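Hi R.,

Here's the chain you asked about this morning:
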Amino acid sequence: MEGLLDKPLNPNKLLKEQFVSNLTGSSLLEIAALSTIVPAVVVLRKWSSRDNIRRDSVKKNDDALAGHKDGVYYFSALVIDFLTVVLPILLIFTILAEWTYICAISLVAVISIYILFKRSQSHLKAQQHLPSLRADISSYRVSVVLVTCVSILAVDFKIFPRRYAKAETYGSGIMDLGVGSFVVANALVSRQARNITSMRWKAALKSISPLVFLGFARLISTSGVDYQVLFFFVPIT
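And the predicted structure, written out as tokens:
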């Protein structure tokens, strides 16, 4: 009985810590290529969906089956979003990691050809309009959350390149962009960005209370199961 109590809950803790320790990151060029692929995939998906919505709005003449059509549309859009956005990003961060530069150049070329093709169509010039700023900000925030979720879930597996993980002392990986990206994403929708000067403390506390609850829940759960937690310190010179 005493042996069972003395046995650690996570016997592989040391091995897991070593698996994500002593990392030096990747090159800035590779980080730039990855940072190009993600928004490029999102942009291509937005453009294709916008064209589909435009065609559907032209063809739609009846409202008899509007509810059924909306349900089918949203489900099909969800599947298409997964196949055209989530799956490519997941592949780029795992089995296609060695093809990062080729994928980035190919996507940039596809976007350039698409822009030139659209500009060459003179009959669509009257329908062209600039995308809304809110939609662009939402796309950026979705990209940040998506890359963060994929990286956090994949970093514990060998298929995820070690150079993409957080650098412990020196260097930079794609996961090192997470904190700065979230700061920018939150700053774009902050009260100052929305020209809201007044702030109610009750509303502020109510909005951050779920985050505080989740933070303490994570702390308790990781401590309870003896989950490996690494702290990275940046030396000050």
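Residues 115 and 121 are 10 Å apart (CA to CA).

Let me know if you need anything else.
M.
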